[in-house]
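2024-03-11 09:14:02 DEBUG pipeline.ingest accepted 1 chain
2024-03-11 09:14:02 DEBUG pipeline.ingest length=276
2024-03-11 09:14:03 DEBUG pipeline.predict start
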Amino acid sequence: MNLFLALTWDDIKAFLNEYRVPQIALRILISLAILIVGCIIVKKIVKNIENGKIFKRVNKTVRLFLRHLIAVALYAVIAVAIVSVLGFNMSAFSAVIASCGLTIGLALQGGLANIAGGIMLVIFKPFEVGDYVESSGVSGTVVDIGLFYSTLTTPDNKKVVVPNGTISNNVIINYSTHETRRIDFDFSIAYSADIDTARKVLFACAKADERILLDPQPEVMIVSHNDSSITIRLRVWVKNAEYWDVYFPMYEQVKRSFDEYGIEIPYPHLSIKIDK
């Protein structure tokens, strides 16, 4: 082992020249070794950074974004090292890249816009990992904010990948920002129904559910007069996490209570009068 470590680069080249091993083959082997070892080292570095105490103090959303950014930067270093080992003239290589910069920039403008969008999302924080958001025609829980794309999971467990540039340039509705949310329930009652009784029934349904907050207090109001019904609205406040737990059962409870007190929920109908 000590003998192997004592070998110099010149000794290795002399050995290879003696056995007529082509230089290009050597460069390819070294490049493969750099690629394999480099990828292993990058994964370990990224893992160590993630497990570091300082990194864990950073916001989860920023932490995920930085992880992607660090990994891409390290892989870029590996790529440069491989190009150098293969014998390409780095100055000429740099000149080619510079001369093609405009073309590459135009070709990758969508990707660059996504990177810029990701940076904007991390800096201004319109949402964080774990928030339920709606943007660009899709909605779901944010599970990752990458360099180019943000990943959402829908309530029915679908994975939605949205370009960061698209999200950052569109309206974002964040349903998780505040601890409480308001629910508006609209019910149709017949014109012949007693409005005061309907109001009392809705208040009773709201107070019967302990998950509904009393501050702000529930509200009941008439919101519209329709062709064959009146729309009466129950407005309540709940904790964000209990929104759907309250939403669906309330419709069932109100229907049962309306039936109990004889409050009709009309359906669209047409009356025809025939003159004889």
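2024-03-11 09:14:41 DEBUG pipeline.report The radius of gyration is 33 Å.
2024-03-11 09:14:41 DEBUG pipeline.predict end
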